[in-house]
C-alpha cells in the first residue's frame, strides 16, 4: 500500500463522494458499429444523455480503437473524461458496450467537484460512471488529509467498503519530493461508508505514531459530511508530586450547531477522582461559556480560617467555577462578563489548573460611539494569597464611568467631560463611596520652527464618603471618616521639538521635551486612598499630569519635567531611548514616601532603552537612578536572542527602593528568569526555563532565604512537523503552599494537527 497521510477524521468522507462521480444515469460514448478500426491522433467526443436532466459526459484521448465483434471501445494516451466539474485522467479506458463496464488503468487521477483528488492504478466504473471496484488507492483531500486503501468496492446503493485502509493528516512527501512515512496514521482492517446515514465506520482501527502501534480505537466512527459529532477524545497523561499518576479523558457532546458540552474525567493514584465540564454556546448576539471542576480531597488551609480541633486531613468537596461571555446588544451597546471562584486557596495550584493568586469576577454594560463612552460595571476579587484576609478585599458595585469628547467651536482643541462613581464594600474592612466630575481641555499646535506645543486645563470636583476607617491598618490610607469633598484645578504646557537628521547610514530623531504642571494644594490626607497606593516614578508616567496611578491621590504643587527621546533606524536596526527627571518648584512637604523616586524636590532619573536587530535580537532595559549618588533603584531588562526555533530569553528585575516596610504594595524584590530552546535534527528541540528569587533579607525581612531561592524550573524535549506535535516536560516546584506540595511534575502532550484533540 502506498504511504499515506491525512489530516482529520471527518474529511475522509469526501473520498466516497469522489468515487461517486455521477449521481444520475449517463450514456457512454456512442461509436458507430463497424469493423475494427483505429484512429490515430487526438480524439474528442461528447456523449448524449439518456436523460435530459443528466449532465453531458465528454472525453478525449490520443487514440481510440473499436472492436465490433467484442463491442468494446478503447481510448489510450492521455485519456480525459469530464462531467460537470469532475474529471478522470488515465492512460487507458476500455468500455464494454454489452456489459456497460468501464475499466480505467494507469496513472489514474480522479477529481471531484469538491477538489478532492483520488490516485489509483485501476478502477472499474459502470456506464453511469459510478465506481465499482478500486485497487491500491490514495485520496488527497482538499482539506489536506489523505486516505489510502489496498482495495475498495462500491455497492449499487452507494455503500462502500475499503480494505486494508489507513488515514492520516501528514504529508507523504518531503521537501525534496521523495516519499516519507507519515508521523501518525490510523490503520484499519476495513472502512465502511453508510450512504444513507452518511457515516464512516472503522473495523480494527489502530493509532500508530512513527510506525509504532500506540492505541487501539475500537468502534471508531465519524460523519462524512463534516458535521461535528459526539465522542471520546484522546486522553492526557501526567505525573505530579501532589496527585501521583494521572490520566484524563474527555467525552464531547455536540448538542446543536451552536452549542456543545465537554465532560472530562480525571483519575489519580494519589487522590480521589475529579470531574470537569465545559459548556459553550453561540447566540444571535454573542457567545458565552462556563467551566466547572469538582472533586473530594483533603486540604490544608492557608487563609487562617481553620478552627481549633479541625482535622486538616478531612475529605471535603473542592472545586472551581469559571465563566465568560459577551453579548452585542446593538451597534453601540454590549454586555461583557466573566466570573471565577475557587472553593479554597490551593485547589487551582494542586490540580495545576492555574497559578493565579487572585480571581476576579466582573460584569460590564458598555455603550461606545465615536465621541462618548458609558460603563456600568461591578466586580469582586477572591484572594488566594497565603495569610490575606478576604474580608479586606473590596467588592465594587456599582462602578459608573461616562466620558464625552467635544470640539469647542470658538477656542479649538478637544474638551473631554467625565463623570465617575464608585462604591466599595468590605465584609471586614473600610467601606467607601466616591463620585467626581471632570472637564479637561487640550489644545495641540505646531509652531513655524517645528515645536509641538500642547496646552492643558483641567477642573475636577470630588465627593467621598467612608466608614469603619479604623479597620485600614495603614493610617496614610484611611482618610477622614464621613463625607469629604475637594476641588482640583490643573494647568499644564508640554513642548516637544523633534530634530531629524541622518547618522551612521540611517535616520535619527532627537526630541527634547519639557513640561510645566501647576496644581494648587489638595486636601489629600483627608481623602481615603483606595486606588493610588502603588506609586513609583518610571518612564511610563514621567510626563503624566498625575504620577499617582488612580484618582484618590493628586500630586499637587508646581513642577517642571524635562527629558529627551532619541530614535535611530536603519535597515535591520532600530534603537530608541528615553531619559528624564522632574523638579518640584514648591517647597511644601510631599505626601509621597521615600523610595518612590518622587519624595524630594528633584526626582530620581528614569529611562528606558529598546534595541531591535531584525528578528534576531530584542533588548529592553528600564532603570531608575538615585538623584544623589546615581545608585540603581530599579534595574530591569529583558533580552531575546535567536529565532522562533532556537532562542534564549533572560529577564532580570532588581527593585532597591529603600522604602519603609509599611508600604506593602511597594516591597523590594530581585528576580531572574531564563528560558531557552535549541532545535536539532530539523523536527526536534530541547527546551528549559527557570525562575529564581534573589531577594535578600535586607530588602524583604519576610524572606526565609537570603539571596537565592529557586522557585521553579522546567526541562523537556519536543517534536513538531506538519501534522504532529508532541512534548515530554519535567517541571519542578520548590515552594509548598498548603496541599500544593513542592516536587516534580512530568507531563506528556500529543496533538494531532487537524483532529483538534490532544
From TrEMBL:
Region (Disordered), start-end ranges: 29-55
UniProt domain LptD C-terminal: residue ranges: 317-684
Keyword Signal listed: yes
Residue ranges with Low complexity bias: 39-54
Main location class: membrane
Lineage: superkingdom: Bacteria
Record localization: Cell outer membrane
CC terms in the record's Gene Ontology section: cell outer membrane; transporter complex
Domain (Organic solvent tolerance-like N-terminal) ranges: 60-128
The keyword Signal appears for this protein: yes
Leader sequence residues: 1-28
Keyword annotations: Cell outer membrane, Membrane, Signal
GO biological processes: Gram-negative-bacterium-type cell outer membrane assembly; lipopolysaccharide transport
UniProt function note: Involved in the assembly of lipopolysaccharide (LPS) at the surface of the outer membrane.
Subunit relationships: Component of the lipopolysaccharide transport and assembly complex.
Family: Belongs to the LptD family.
Protein name: LPS-assembly protein LptD
Amino acid at each position: 500500500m502506498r504511504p499515506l497521510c491525512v489530516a482529520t477524521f471527518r474529511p475522509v468522507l469526501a473520498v466516497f463522494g469522489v468515487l461517486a462521480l455521477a449521481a444520475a444515469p449517463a450514456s457512454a460514448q456512442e461509436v458507430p458499429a463497424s469493423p475494427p478500426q483505429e484512429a490515430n491522433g487526438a480524439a474528442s467526443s461528447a456523449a448524449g444523455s439518456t436523460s435530459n436532466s443528466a449532465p453531458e459526459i465528454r472525453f478525449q484521448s490520443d487514440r481510440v480503437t473499436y472492436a465490433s465483434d467484442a463491442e468494446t471501445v478503447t481510448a489510450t494516451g492521455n485519456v480525459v473524461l469530464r462531467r460537470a466539474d469532475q474529471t478522470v485522467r488515465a492512460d487507458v479506458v476500455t468500455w464494454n458496450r454489452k456489459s456497460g463496464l468501464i475499466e480505467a488503468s494507469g496513472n489514474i487521477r480522479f477529481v471531484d467537484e469538491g477538489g478532492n483528488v483520488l490516485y489509483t492504478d485501476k478502477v472499474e466504473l459502470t456506464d453511469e460512471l459510478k465506481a465499482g471496484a478500486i485497487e491500491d488507492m490514495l485520496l488527497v483531500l482538499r482539506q489536506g488529509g489523505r486516505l489510502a486503501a489496498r482495495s475498495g468496492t462500491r455497492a449499487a446503493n452507494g455503500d462502500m467498503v475499503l480494505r486494508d485502509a489507513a488515514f492520516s493528516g501528514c504529508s507523504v512527501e518531503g521537501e525534496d519530493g521523495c516519499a516519507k512515512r507519515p508521523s501518525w496514521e490510523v490503520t484499519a482492517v476495513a472502512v465502511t461508508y453508510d450512504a444513507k446515514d452518511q457515516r464512516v465506520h472503522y473495523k480494527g482501527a489502530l493509532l500508530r505514531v512513527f510506525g509504532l502501534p500506540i492505541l487501539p480505537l475500537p468502534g471508531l466512527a465519524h460523519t462524512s459530511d463534516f458535521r461535528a459529532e459526539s465522542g471520546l477524545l484522546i486522553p492526557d497523561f501526567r505525573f505530579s508530586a501532589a496527585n501521583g499518576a494521572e490520566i484524563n479523558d474527555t467525552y464531547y457532546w455536540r448538542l446543536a450547531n451552536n452549542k456543545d458540552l465537554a465532560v472530562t474525567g480525571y483519575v489519580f493514584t494519589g487522590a480521589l477522582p475529579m470531574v470537569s465540564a465545559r459548556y459553550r454556546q453561540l447566540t444571535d448576539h454573542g457567545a458565552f461559556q462556563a467551566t466547572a471542576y469538582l472533586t473530594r480531597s483533603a486540604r490544608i488551609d492557608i487563609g487562617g480560617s481553620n478552627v481549633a480541633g479541625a482535622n486538616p486531613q478531612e475529605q471535603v468537596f473542592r472545586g472551581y467555577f469559571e465563566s465568560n461571555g459577551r453579548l452585542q446588544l446593538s451597534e453601540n451597546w454590549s454586555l461583557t462578563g466573566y466570573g471565577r471562584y475557587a472553593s479554597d486557596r490551593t485547589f487551582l495550584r494542586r490540580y495545576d489548573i492555574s497559578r493565579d493568586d487572585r480571581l476576579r469576577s466582573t460584569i460590564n454594560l458598555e455603550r461606545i460611539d465615536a465621541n462618548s463612552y458609558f460603563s456600568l460595571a461591578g466586580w469582586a476579587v477572591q484572594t488566594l494569597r497565603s495569610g490575606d484576609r478576604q474580608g479586606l478585599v473590596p467588592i465594587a458595585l456599582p462602578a459608573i464611568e461616562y466620558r464625552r469628547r467635544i470640539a469647542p467651536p470658538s477656542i479649538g482643541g478637544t474638551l473631554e467631560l467625565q463623570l465617575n462613581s464608585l462604591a466599595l464594600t468590605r465584609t471586614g474592612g473600610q467601606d467607601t463611596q466616591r463620585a467626581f466630575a471632570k472637564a479637561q481641555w487640550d489644545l495641540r499646535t505646531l509652531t513655524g520652527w517645528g515645536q509641538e506645543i500642547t496646552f492643558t486645563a483641567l477642573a475636577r470636583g470630588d465627593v467621598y464618603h467612608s466608614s469603619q476607617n479604623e479597620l485600614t491598618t495603614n493610617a496614610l490610607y484611611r482618610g477622614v471618616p464621613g463625607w469629604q469633598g475637594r476641588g482640583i484645578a490643573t494647568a499644564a504646557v508640554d513642548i516637544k521639538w523633534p530634530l531629524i537628521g541622518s547618522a551612521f547610514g540611517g535616520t535619527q530623531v532627537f526630541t527634547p521635551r519639557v513640561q510645566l504642571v501647576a496644581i494648587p494644594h489638595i486636601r489629600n490626607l483627608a481623602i481615603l486612598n483606595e486606588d493610588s497606593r502603588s506609586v513609583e516614578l518610571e518612564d511610563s508616567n514621567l510626563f503624566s499630569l498625575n504620577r499617582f496611578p488612580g484618582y484618590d491621590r493628586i500630586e499637587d504643587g508646581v513642577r517642571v519635567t524635562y527629558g529627551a527621546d532619541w530614535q535611530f533606524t536603519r535597515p535591520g536596526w532600530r534603537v530608541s531611548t528615553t531619559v528624564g527627571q522632574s523638579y518640584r518648584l514648591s517647597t511644601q512637604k510631599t505626601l509621597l514616601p521615600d523610595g518612590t523616586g518622587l519624595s524630594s524636590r528633584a526626582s530620581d532619573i528614569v529611562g528606558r532603552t529598546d534595541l531591535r536587530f531584525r528578528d534576531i535580537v530584542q533588548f529592553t532595559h528600564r532603570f531608575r537612578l538615585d538623584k544623589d549618588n546615581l545608585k540603581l533603584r530599579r534595574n530591569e531588562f529583558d533580552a531575546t536572542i535567536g529565532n522562533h526555533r532556537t532562542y534564549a530569553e533572560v529577564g532580570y528585575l532588581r527593585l532597591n527602593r529603600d522604602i519603609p516596610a509599611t508600604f506593602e504594595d511597594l516591597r523590594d524584590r530581585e528576580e531572574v528568569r531564563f528560558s531557552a530552546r535549541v532545535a536539532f535534527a530539523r523536527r526536534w528541540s530541547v527546551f528549559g526555563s527557570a525562575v529564581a528569587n534573589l531577594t535578600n533579607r535586607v530588602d524583604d525581612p519576610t524572606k526565609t532565604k537570603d539571596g537565592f531561592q529557586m522557585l521553579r524550573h522546567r526541562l523537556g524535549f519536543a517534536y513538531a512537523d506538519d501534522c504532529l506535535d508532541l512534548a515530554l516536560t519535567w517541571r519542578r516546584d520548590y515552594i509548598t503552599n498548603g496541599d500544593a506540595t513542592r516536587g516534580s511534575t512530568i507531563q506528556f502532550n500529543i496533538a494531532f494537527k487537524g483532529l483538534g484533540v490532544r
